[in-house]
Amino acid sequence: MSLMLSQKMVVLGKKRSEIREIFEYGKKRSREIGADKVFDFSIGNPNVPAPEFVKETIIDLLTNEDPTKIHGYTSAQGDLNVRRALADHMNSKYGTDVTADNFYLTAGAAASLSICCSALACPGDEFLTFAPYFPEYKVFVESAGAVLSVIPANTVNFQVDIEKFEKAINKNTKAVIINSPNNPSGAVYSADTIKKICSIMDKKTKEFGHVIYLISDEPYRELVYGEVEVPFLLNHYKNTFVCYSYSKSLSLPGDRIGYVLVSNEMEDGEDVYAAVCGAGRALGYVCAPSLFQHLIARCLGRTSDISVYSRNRDILYLALKEMGYECAKPDGAFYLFLKALEPDAEAFCEKAKKHELLLVPGDGFGCPGYVRISYCVKTEQIEASLPAFEKLAEDYKK
Ligand code: PLP
Question: Could you tell me if 317 and 197 lie in one domain?
Answer without folding.
Answer: no
